[in-house]
What does this fold into?
Amino acid sequence: MQSQIKQAIKETVSKKFGLKNMPDFSVDISEKPEHGDYASNVAMVLAKTLKKNPLEIAHIIDMELEKWNIKNGLKTEIVPPGFINFFIDTKGLGLVLKEIIKKKEKFGSGSKKKETIIIEYSSPNIAKPMGVHHLRTTIIGQSLVNMYSFLGYKVLAMSFPGDWGTQFGSLIAAYKKWGDAKKFKVSPIKEMLNLYVRFSQLAESDETMQEEARLEFKKLEQNNKENKRIWNLFRKESFKDFDKVYKKIGVKIPLVFAESFFEPYLKQVIIDATTKKIAQRGVDGSLVVKFKDDTPPLLLQKSDGATLYATRDLAQMKYRIQKWHPSKIIIVVANQQTLYFNQVFKVTELLGYAKKEILKHVKFGMVLDSTGKKFATREGKLIPLTDVLDEAIKRAKKVIGKLNSKLPQKEKDKIANIVGIGAVKFFDLSQNRLSDIVFDWNKMLNLKGASAPYVQYSYARIKSIIRKSKIKPSGKIKIELLKEDEELNLLRHMFHFAEIIKYSALKYEPNHLAEYLLRLAEKINNFYEKIPILSAEKEIKDARLTLINSTAIIIKSGMNLLGIEVTERM
RNA sequence: GCCCUUGUAGUUCAAUGGAUAGAACAGGACUCUUCUAAGGUCUUGAUGGGGGUUCGAUUCCCUCCAGGGGCACCA
It folds into this structure.
């Protein structure tokens, strides 16, 4: 509807005023009911070019649009300083309700598109537990995957785990020095972290240790048997651990291409870079890309011939582009790496792999420790993600125990899982992704107020009413029976579902969808307080049940797009 | 030093150049013989400072201040 209104205005204006270059104007979703459902600023934008009073322009446009409005179930109102507000009439609202009932969980989804979008996210590092800081990339990435799929794109969800590089030289060196096979077998992840921390701390003041690490990695790249064996051990245990975490948070990433996968492709990148004269070989043997502008140079090969993260990233860019021809590659990685991706995107274009424009770094703020600094794994300050999730489930369980003691234990556990994990995810997804988050247990595990449980609770209450009604809503829509403000406000809000998803996906900002769901829950709660359903007269009861049933569909659908489950009881 | 990013109630966060800057938590006052009180109603309270562009700026530009991050042999 939003885009239809905009298009209609555009046509009307160019016809009426004969404007060739239409200045950009907006058709926004109104924030307040008294401003209608949509509002346009077109008259104010045109005021200067046309040298006319904006109110006068608004009236002219409105008159021209009148027929079109009636056809589409819209009424308009012109308000100073020159807004044109559009109100959807009851007929229009009835059509929406009908569509929700018909399409169910597909309501708001887009038609199938040919474009392929690659979304790279999560990408944990081998030999380290997944920490809270992996939460953001994993959850934001997953919700983008869900939204773009819903909109009809062919989405390739992909992760690029770090299993190669000098840090594995450090680990192998440490394992050879202090490794204990027994301890390793008992708790491999903990042992790997210990080795890494111990080594890094010594290496900080000891140059020879760093040299040793580089040497061990070099040997790994040259296929040294013992080093490869140790590395495989690390890899196997790590992937097992990742799978556990993914299972717990309900994330599935079908395509996993670890750094080491691209080893055979590195040579070609080096050849591309040298033959195209993009990179220069230094006297010490290193290979560096220098940029024309003031972007700092990017190293592709060390003086000892070993490759770097950037080399492997470029290899994967080439691989992906040639294999899938994506129209967009979205990479969900923290703020930290902004400069790095600038460099890599530039080189990708210089090498002729793809235009820079199809590459998008979706960056986000970092999770900081209580002192406001970043979590440094090297100093062993990491908070494992599983700890956070377990604590969330524990807290949810406590609340359920207090409020809903009649449910069987098994169902209670299931609900605690959905609520606890949902709360953690929603906390992250409901805020603007660019700001840093200072880690705080209470903040992250909030189960009250503007949170996942708030939305989930609203859903459970609707479901409870539907269960108690003992009748199936007829599905017949008699919109004239819905007269109360609370009913119409609810419907008006549901109307915008599809637009919000599009907007969220386009901006790569799931928080708009989260905000939308909070407001939807708020509206259903207002409805719940004031409008009786079960005790209403038969026809009205049926209409109201149809209405809340469709609200439930949207809540579920929206929460699922954020990667959060809902539950029938809680 | 250069680059990226953030700064909004006591606290944690919203706000697509629009209309009276929204929530939540904390504080205060109400609300379960009525469909789940993880709810609802009322209430106190904010755009870091200074310029500029605009009919209109939390949003765009400049500058200063403060936080976080980055700047070739780590990833």
